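Bench notes, afternoon.
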Amino acid sequence: MSASVKCPAGYYQRHIQHIKWHWRGISQCTECPVHMFCDIEQLSGPAGFCEDGYYCEKGEQQPKPSGTICGPGEYCVKGRKFLCEKGFYQPYGGRHECFECPEGMYCVTEGLAAPSGNCDMGFYCGKREIESSPATQKCPAGYMCPNAEQTICSKGYYQPLEYQTRCLPCPLGKYCQDTGLSSPSGDCDPGCCLDIAQINASSCPPASPTTCTQGFYYDQSAGRCELCPEGMYCAISGLTDPSGSCETGWYCEIGEITPMPLGKLCPAGHQCPTGVKVPCSSWVRDSEPYVGHTQYLYQPERGQTSCIECPNRYNCTEQGLTIAENYCRPGYWCFFGLILDCEIGHYCVNGEMFPCRNGFKSLATNQESCVRCSDGELCEDGQVLPCPANMVCYHGIAEFCQLGNECSFVDGAYELTLCDLSNERYDVSQTGCGPCREFRYCLKGNSYECFRNHIGDLCLQNNHYKPEMIISQPGTHYTLTYESQDTNRGYDIKQCEPGTYQNTTFKPSCELCPGGMYCTVNRIQPDGYCRAGYYCPKGSKSETEIECPAGFYCPARSEIPIHCPRGRFQPNSGQGSCYACTRRYYCATPGLTAVTAVCPSGHGCGSGVADPSPCGKGRYNPYTGKLNCSPCVPGTYCPGLTTGWPNHCPHGYKCPGYGTVTPTPCPQGTYQPSARQGYCRNCTSGYYCPTTALRYQEICPSGSKCPDSGGGGI
């Protein structure tokens, strides 16, 4: 019997149960990583991520560690802690997300537990605002900016100041007949405007019972003026019935005179479908799914005619909610306003329902956490199942019993028992140890192959469990021929296949025939070398394994074909050498099957030329396909690469002999009147040649003497 090393809580150790027929045990424990927890001993991996709303350091043992709950202004997801970003806040601890900064407020820094404050009076702030006065737009005179919205003052009202949140009613004795006034329009007529917020100057008391002022209507049954009822408005005087219902999205209190009363846009948390303000509440579902369940509502926007379902995961049981701040209580999950029981095999936190992780269970409804399963139980998808017969179950997780051993569950703990001497357990699907298989011998629960003609326990030598060996000889190799218990036949000895050889004993395979050689029948060593005109890669079976292609040559013993080099070509396959490039042609690239082209003018091409040789100084060639260049004849010169005829020697110069590169100027005392000459003429009597390169001699000046071959004159 052997015992494995137990890693304590806060640690784990992954292990590989078997490699082929061998067991690898635990060598050391690893500390549980950051963001995860290891709640019990002897874990093969972390139990999982820490619960949302908590953060975990290294070596944590609980999914909700004490002292590491996420605080206000923070949120924690899968064991990691973050600060709420600008424009967000979080007033509670243990949460995994932050709330948007609401409309009309601002959140200026990270990590806020509450909004920084209300936006400045007269400025508009949307959601997620980070400044108190965004866009710096002031509320002008004649307007009001309640709740960060700019609204023009209606008739009967005025506002003389900037940055105000409400308009002022026109005072008694004054009237305000237009919208957007910064001061009253003027004084009323004598005896009129006895009430505030008058629109015209001649608004006087009713002259008879049937004449009622704005905001009133005449109730004939009562014989008097009555205030306009809630949800309706009375726009003019003298009405016997209200003017009509208020606009949807607005609410009207008694005595209203407009369908959209000043400052009475339906507030958030309410619905105003018929001009009456009703706080958001709940209703009982009469349709699938969840018939008969109470569904809670809220409304984050103003001016709405209906309420909407509470956001997923949140609890909106309070009336008139404008923002969903509280998660569904633990043990329940919230689905768009519905509060539902947490199901068996699940746990519910932060308004969501999750299945229990493998190794954990939940045996009742409304659980906020799952509990670790006991040894001997298999827990998958929140269900408790019997442990399979060929496995062991530690803390609800099933693992195969170590190979070479039997596992039993005794007094709440697993015991590991090594197989007997002549038995083995070689497959994880086996429920126990069994006799050593045919053609194998067994040691410490593991088995090893015998060689051919030896069976199981009969592989005995001097009372030791060892195989009697039959060694493969040169020219052969051994191979393992078993696939399963039924077809196991140990090792087999086979002849080397053509293309291979083996010159030593006891080898599991034959060697590939070396490159440039072939192996046919002599399996101990290669038969010989590859024939010229062919090449033999590794593993070749014939001296003519692959014919050498055109453009290549293959001398004897070739492993690969060789490109014909530049200056050579080969038009045929199966050749051991390449031809030299034909005279008067050139072969510019390797691997040619024909010459590249005829030799161009100004060049010469001998045998085996890769590049045409340009005519050097003093030589020329005006033709294509020439072997060599010719020297320039006397009277001509060739200064460099000449693709045509030589240059004629100019007047006053000589080009003597063959191969002249540069014309020579005629020296003093000589001249040359003709072109294409190889010599200079001496200056004649009566003339003189004072400079070099003269075309004509000059007449001797008066008073001077110029003999034959004269110089500079006398």
